[in-house]
Amino acid sequence: MPRYRTGRLPSFAYPRHALALLVLILLAGCQLQPPEPADEDKLAIDRMLSLIDERLDVAPVVARSKWNSGAAIEAPEREAQILGRVADEASEAGVDEAFAREFFQKQFDASKQIQRRLHLRWVQEGRGPFASPPDLAEEVRPVLDRLTPQLIDALGDMQRIARVEGAGRYLEARARVLVQDDFDGEPRAVALAPLIERMAR
Ligand SMILES: O=C(O)C(=O)C[C@]1(C(=O)O)C=C[C@@H](O)C=C1
């Protein structure tokens, strides 16, 4: 005897499968939407990145000044002077001193990378001196000094939002837009490393 399907099974079971499938799709959708920091935190990250960019932008000016004067790219006494100030101001602003020092050391390293690469390029080009480059002590270093307290302030914000989910991912994506880098992204990666290491993805 043929067994007849009653028709109950499809009308009962398929809607349940469809519902389960819908729930799975919705859950997958939730997983595909990575968490994003709040607008206020995004603004703080953008400000930090713009300051890093501004600081890196001074490196070619330093390079031109040193090209003319023949001064060494590495200036350890100047780094020590900045780091001393950074330590004082960071502790006043409630920023972890080791974090602030590491951050500024990486900004020096990124600047030196840019300066070395430019000098190498100018050697290869057989470049002569630049016409009236700015004075390092009188004109260029004061620009960097004005950025120092602003960067420390921004580091305080980064410390506060370091555990915000998605902050690190947002920072990395925005860095490609806000921090220019004419050297294969290497100096930029160096400058950003202390932040990327600490920010939750
Ligand atoms: O002031 C200089 O001589 C620079 O080259 C700039 C800078 C900096 O980024 O502040 C970079 C490298 C030096 O070792 C010291 C300081």
From TrEMBL:
Entry keyword Flavoprotein: no
Every Chorismate mutase domain range: 27-119
Functional pathway: Metabolic intermediate biosynthesis; prephenate biosynthesis; prephenate from chorismate: step 1/1
Superkingdom of origin organism: Bacteria
GO molecular function annotation: chorismate mutase activity
InterPro entries per the UniProt record, alphabetical: Chorismate_II_sf, Chorismate_mutase-related, Chorismate_mutase_periplasmic, CM_dom_sf, CM_II_prokaryot
Keyword check for Signal: yes
Enzyme Commission number(s) from the entry: 5.4.99.5
Name of the molecule in the record: chorismate mutase
Organism: Halomonas kalidii
Encoding gene per record: aroQ
